[in-house]
């Protein structure tokens, strides 16, 4: 039986990945690809925390020289989220770059070197399925080892950033009704910004939180806020009550001396009804038919500012093809060295220019525009951007 035909036995390959020890996962993947797909070489490139480079993993947790996450064959596969086949001349062969993505969360790229004539469409398709299976196992392995998290870093995270990254559900999420892409900066030193989501059969809950202050104090505040919101959400209560319970938890701890601004959104996947509670400073923008507009919600008090605050819900609707963008105060309140506010005008320009791009790239472009406006990648305030494309369900 030829290697290509043997590679049809993907369930067997997945079973071997599941059985591999966490630290041996990539070596197991390389062995499977060599034995069953005839690969001459296989390399995993993990996206760093800032989504700026792809880190080729050599011997965990060590990496080789990084490659751009948005240029070159590997970067193109990462941005486009589709396989890129690179033709090699000497010696003849192919490099197949495959996205490692789990339910919309982009982890990196699997690069497989194949002999000449072996990169046919069917093999590339099966390699893509293998890359997805590998992604699932990478996320599972993260529960038991630090090696892959270490390999994703270009430098050490601050303690506050370490705490914040542990809180995040991922950097993207996708299903038939929607696609989410999100970005945080400064990636290696964030303190108080957070995004969170949870999906069920019929609903999606999305929150963006901005804890006041900086560093470890902001991280502790945001950790309490997100934990309280999740606890209330998992109790199965309404959105306004989720905000009220989280408000009480934060006030009980800080007595109004510290608080967290939060935007809570609950999407009905069947009809596009969105329930919203605006408890602070994150701003919400809406794109439809080539127009960008800010959704003006009733501004209510941040969580924990006063005791037993009562919150109310508002509703609006999204239609298939709509895009929503949420930005934290670290985006819309940032000033340049000369004192110019980043502001809504510049933000609208970026959102308009990136409308054809996928949500991940729009979120990244907003942060890139912010860094350019500020004049340095070392932002003084956290910046969170969440972009959601709404597909909805057929009626």
Automatic annotation (TrEMBL):
Enzyme Commission (EC) number: 3.1.3.16
Record's keyword annotation contains Hydrolase: yes
Classification via Pfam families: SpoIIE
Residue ranges of domain PPM-type phosphatase in the record: 175-390
Superkingdom, natural source: Bacteria
Keyword field: Hydrolase
Example GO molecular function: protein serine/threonine phosphatase activity
InterPro entries (UniProt xref): Bact_Sigma-Reg, PPM-type-like_dom_sf, PPM-type_phosphatase-like_dom
Matching SUPFAM superfamilies: PP2C-like
Keyword Hydrolase among record annotations: yes
Stored Gene3D superfamilies: PPM-type phosphatase domain (3.60.40.10)
Position of the signal peptide: none
The protein, known as: PP2C family protein-serine/threonine phosphatase
The organism's taxonomic lineage, starting at the top: Bacteria, Bacillati, Actinomycetota, Actinomycetes, Kitasatosporales
């Amino acid at each position: 039986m030829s290697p290509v035909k043997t590679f049809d036995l993907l369930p067997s390959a997945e079973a071997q990945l599941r059985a591999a020890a966490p630290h041996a996962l990539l070596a197991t993947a390389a062995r499977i690809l060599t034995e069953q797909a005839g690969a001459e070489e296989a390399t995993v490139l993990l996206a760093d925390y800032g989504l700026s480079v792809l880190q080729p993993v050599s011997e965990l947790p060590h990496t080789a020289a990084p490659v751009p996450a948005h240029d070159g064959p590997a970067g193109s596969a990462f941005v486009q989220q589709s396989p890129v086949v690179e033709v090699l001349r000497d010696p003849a062969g192919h490099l197949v770059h495959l996205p490692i993505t789990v339910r919309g969360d982009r982890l990196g790229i699997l690069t497989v070197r194949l002999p000449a004539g072996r990169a046919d469409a069917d093999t590339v398709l099966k390699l893509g399925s293998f890359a997805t299976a590998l992604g699932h196992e990478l996320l599972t392995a993260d529960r038991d080892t630090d090696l892959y998290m270490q390999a994703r870093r270009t430098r050490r995270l601050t303690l506050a950033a370490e705490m914040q990254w542990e809180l995040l559900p991922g950097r993207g999420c996708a299903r038939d009704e929607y696609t989410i892409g999100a970005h945080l900066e400064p990636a290696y030193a964030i303190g108080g910004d957070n995004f969170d989501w949870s999906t069920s059969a019929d609903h999606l809950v999305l929150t963006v939180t901005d804890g006041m202050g900086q560093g470890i104090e902001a991280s502790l505040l945001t950790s309490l806020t997100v934990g309280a919101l999740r606890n209330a959400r998992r109790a199965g209560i309404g959105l306004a009550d989720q905000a009220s319970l989280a408000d009480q938890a934060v006030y009980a701890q800080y007595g109004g001396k510290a608080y967290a601004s939060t935007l809570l959104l609950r999407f009905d996947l069947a009809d596009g009804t969105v329930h919203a509670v605006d408890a602070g400073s994150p701003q919400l923008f809406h794109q439809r038919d080539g127009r960008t507009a800010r959704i003006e919600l009733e501004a209510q008090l941040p969580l924990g500012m006063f005791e037993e605050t009562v919150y109310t819900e508002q509703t609006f609707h999204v239609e298939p093809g709509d895009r929503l963008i949420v930005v934290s105060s670290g985006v819309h309140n940032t000033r340049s060295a000369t004192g110019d506010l980043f502001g809504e005008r510049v933000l609208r320009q970026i959102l308009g220019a990136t409308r054809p791009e996928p949500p991940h790239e729009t979120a990244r472009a907003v942060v890139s525009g912010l860094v350019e406006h500020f004049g340095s990648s070392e932002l003084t305030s956290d910046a969170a951007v969440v972009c959601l494309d709404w597909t909805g369900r057929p009626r």
